[in-house]
Amino acid sequence: MSTLKVPVSPRDHRRGGPNAAVTLVEYGDYQCPYCAAAHPVVRFLESRFGPALSVVFRHFPLVEVHPLAAPAAEAAEYAGDHGRFWEMHDAIFSNNNRLSTQLLFALAGTLQLSQMGLRDSIARSLHADRIREDFIGGIRSGVNGTPTFFVNGVRHQGGFSAPELAASIQDEMGALAPAR
Amino acid sequence: MATILASGTKAPAFTLRVTPDQTLSLSEFAGRRLILAFYPADWSPVCGDQMTLYNHVLTEFRKKGADLVGISVDGPWCHQAFARDRNLHFPLLADFHPKGEVSRAYGAYRDDVGESARALFIIDQHGMIAWSHLSPVAVNPGADGILDALDQMPNLEQNHVDAQSSRQPA
């Protein structure tokens, strides 16, 4: 069974408390339609499990087939530099069907981030190292496509529907309960 | 399920078409490490496709002294269209005629469906199989097994540097 080779750390983008019983790590690509489809499912799981669940997103852009995946990841990281990672992340996935560089600039504007700053970030690939680090960490953990989820470090097998992912999370919570 | 050639076996030689008018032979990789990735067919869905994934890991493979080729029974024209569509930066070999001959030689042919199995081989600089792995057909094996296996092999660059420095003591 594949396990997460790079543990969750403060360098990660994490939504939810670090003391949550379960951490869901997603490797995703902003231009991947399956990731976009899984996004509302993840949002649903966050509201269903509340403080018991925290969510981490790591970049796994397949840039040779998804030319907008890299600029989108740059936009998310650029927003992250200004404390707005998750807002940009949600906005990109919510608009996945009309993803374009213009859209990224529009989203930056909506989040009241400097569009000049975003242009600089994309043009100079300022976050390329971090994005590649995420990608290689995913590769070493056996990620073979997107989205791939890990529940407390163990790879989620099966589909990305709410019942399937919720069952993985529930199982993990059940396994933790007797130890408390 | 096929039984693939194990590590320690001499890698069977091959010459296959790589484009409609060019061939590629195993002997051309002598002195290098070669990752041979047999796969069932071109045109798997993008987000989970094995060749698309490996295309993004080429830098890591090369850092470890390894080249990569993909092999399936698809013809060279099909490979060409697939490679263009996915922006692949490594060769795809056509085990097309006689169909599956090289796949068979590596124990990586599925007679029931007439396609290559999903089998991985690392061939060392001396032409010996250093590592091999067979995946279920439906499972993209990812690249972690290949990278872990390459990590276990002696460092080619280091040997080279040592050989040079011993010739030219400081």
UniProtKB/TrEMBL annotation, chain A:
Molecular function via GO: isomerase activity
**Keywords of this entry:** Isomerase
Which organism is this entry from? Bosea lupini
Pfam families for the chain: Thioredoxin_4
Summarizing the function annotation, the protein's role is:
May be required for disulfide bond formation in some proteins.
Name the source's superkingdom: Bacteria
Which PANTHER family does the record associate with it?
GLUTATHIONE S-TRANSFERASE KAPPA (PTHR13887), SLR0313 PROTEIN (PTHR13887:SF55)
- Which family, according to UniProt? Belongs to the thioredoxin family. DsbA subfamily.
- This chain's protein is named Protein-disulfide isomerase
Q: What is the lineage of its organism?
A: Bacteria, Pseudomonadati, Pseudomonadota, Alphaproteobacteria, Hyphomicrobiales
* Domain named Thioredoxin: residues: 1-174
Instruction: Fetch the InterPro entries from UniProt.
Output: Thioredoxin-like_fold, Thioredoxin-like_sf, Thioredoxin_domain
UniProtKB/TrEMBL annotation, chain B:
Q: Which Pfam families match?
A: AhpC-TSA
Q: Which domain of life is it from?
A: Bacteria
Family annotation (InterPro entries): AhpC/TSA (IPR000866), Peroxiredoxin_AhpC-typ (IPR024706), Thioredoxin-like_sf (IPR036249), Thioredoxin_domain (IPR013766), Tpx_Peroxidase_subfamily (IPR050455)
- All copies of the Thioredoxin domain together span 5-155
Annotated active site: 47 (cysteine sulfenic acid (-soh) intermediate)
What are the protein's GO molecular function terms?
A: antioxidant activity; oxidoreductase activity
Kindly state which keywords UniProt assigns to this record, in alphabetical order: Oxidoreductase, Redox-active center
What is the protein name for this chain? Peroxiredoxin
